[in-house]
Amino acid sequence: MDRRAVFFFGAAIVCLVLVPLSNGYAWVSATVAGVYALLGVGSWLDARSHRRL
Amino acid sequence: MDDLLLVLVVAVALGFDYVNGFHDAANSIATVVSTRVLSPRAAVIWAAFFNFAAFLVFGDAVAATIANDVVVQDVLSIGMIFAGLVGAIIWNLITFVFGLPTSSSHALVGGMAGAAVAKAGFGVLIADGLRKIGVFIVLSPLIGLAMGLLLTLLIFWVFHRTRSTERLNQGFRIGQLFSAAAFSLGHGANDAQKTMGIILALLIASGHARAGDSTPLWVVLSAHTAIGLGTLSGGWRIVKTMGSKITRLQPVGGVAAETGAAVTLFATSAAGIPVSTTHTITGAIVGVGAARRLSAVRWGVAGRVVWAWILTIPGAFVISWLTFLIVDLFS
Question: Mind telling me how many Å the CA of B157 is from chain A's nearest CA?
Answer without folding.
Answer: 15
